[in-house]
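Dear colleague,

Following up on yesterday's call, I've attached the two folding results inline so they're easy to grep. Please treat them as preliminary; we haven't cross-checked anything against experimental data yet. The first protein's sequence and structure tokens come first.
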Amino acid sequence: MDKKIAFVKDYGAYLRVKNGLIECSVKDQVKWKVSPAEIHSIVFLVTSSVSSEVIRLANEYGIDLVFFHRHEPYAKLIPARYGGSFRLWTRQMRSLRRGVEFARAFIYGKLHNQWVTLRYYEKKYGYDLGTGRLDELTRDSLLATSSEDVMGREAEAAKVYWRGVRFLLPTSLGFKGRRKKVSENLDAFNVALNVGYGMLRKVVWSAVVSVGLNPYVGFLHKFREGRPSLVFDLMEEFRSPFVDRPLIGLAREDSDKVSNLKEVYSLLSRIDEEEVYTQARKLANAVLSGEEYKPFMAK
């Protein structure tokens, strides 16, 4: 059975065991109840309480308890018998030999989704944004033979993609291309992108930890102490559809709104978390089962 994640989202919620089920309630109102056999983790997103009986049952069924503060994980209780998480982490380390396979999938999804973003404007307005070349590079990415090769092809596609984005943006924004460092005297659109990617990173990080993957063991981005490489890997698929495309739309509607970070936060607060969590579960399943990983493909 494909186990699920249970979320505690209501402030002041209390988790207890009743009639063999884990029950979440606020005052006298039951928010949800679930059999411990149906879930692999419980994610606490807000201030709440949990009974020792829930912890005992979690240990018995191999359920991880994950605690977050402002979308960032700060603690995780792993069952003393080292159940699901330990098995998944072990498989994740063994899967490093499949690194190029996962790396190709992440970048294939990223380039396809960039193509979808530009193609939308080509079809709507008859522009030529270079999607033909981007499509070629997307298919070429599947031929890469190493993670470095994958990154090289991604960099080539990035030139085409950001050239297209630049064409779509009002010239008043002064966008010359993708820049990341504050020291580069960033224009408003690059600042908005950095904010958006930061918001996306938190969601992806939450999803990766919640499904039991080790966020620091990546396949595409190299290991570096303290860097959540796997989070950066999985983010690639969502950058264009969840951040770039909404911001391009906002800029074309009213370029001044891109400079207003409240507008940017409000727009990007609607990131589709369910899609991200679903994709993280697919990644965990691919690691566990040895089956092919299929990236998120925007439409």
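Below is the second protein, in the same order (sequence, then structure):
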Amino acid sequence: MAFGGPLRISMPSDTEILTERDFAAPRHLVFACYTQPPLIKRWLTGPPGWTMPVCVFEPRPGGRYRYEWHKGEERLAMSGVIHAIAVPEHILSEEAFDQDATGGTSKSAVDFAEKPEGTTVVNRLTYASKALRDQIAATGMAEGMEMSFQHLDALLAEGWGS
């Protein structure tokens, strides 16, 4: 079996969602795809038909990020602030969707672990409450994330910069 997807998801506590995904590429390339806007726009697009016309990512403590997705008249957007970043190992941030009816934010701690076969990315998402965590988990987030990760697999397979 080849090293790589699909996404693994679990709920280690009442307020957390843990996602894990393997990529058959070196850690520095996977990290670059998470932090460089021209690369982010190529893979973080979710289901077919969606595009990301707005992508801002300032890879520094205190840096901001903003993602806006469009599909026809539909629009989805999120913003966040980076609390800590260690190249190419870790990103700690806090984010919120513009359309979030709960007004809740989440913390995201993303770790990039280098392995002989590639890179494992673990994202620990922490929400303000169990109800908010359950609401987010019920949105189909895992399917959308996996679709984006398949785009990331294709981008990494191009071997750019290696």
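For the second protein, one point worth flagging: Helices lie at 27-35, 37-43, 130-137, 141-157.

Best wishes,
A.L.
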